[in-house]
Amino acid sequence: MTDQAIGVLVCLHQLNPADGFTVLRVTSQLANTKLHTDAEAVITWAHTRQPLPTPLKEALDEALKA
User: Fold this and answer.
1) Contact 9, 24 (CB under 8 A)
2) Which residue of 22, 33, 45, 47 lies most exposed, with the fewest beta carbons within 10 A?
3) Terminus-to-terminus CA distance in the chain, angstroms?
4) Is the pTM of this model over 0.85?
5) Tens digit of each residue's pLDDT (9 = 90 or more) over 10-40
């Protein structure tokens, strides 16, 4: 599941896989959530286009800036 979420980040944000994992890890730390929970949310978002939960979206945006 984590690899799929990294793939989503790689495709959408033109990252390499190592940076995709870093973004996912930092997002997890900033949102104070489990990495696998965030990975699942990213995959669900990619499939359904339903908005990410606000804390996760804000943490992901912040992680992508770094």
Assistant:
1) yes
2) 47
3) 24
4) yes
5) 999 999 999 999 999 999 999 999 999 999 9
Q: Given a cut of 90, is residue 66 above it in pLDDT?
A: no
Are the C-beta atoms of 38 and 56 separated by less than 8 Å? yes
Residue with tokens 């980040």: 9
CB-CB contact of 64 with 24 (8 Å): no
Amino acid at 60: L
Domain, as residue range, for 30: 2-65
How many domains is the chain partitioned into structurally? 1
Burial of residue 2 (CB within 10 Å: 0-12, 13-18, 19+) is middle
- The CA distance from 36 to 64, in Å, is 18
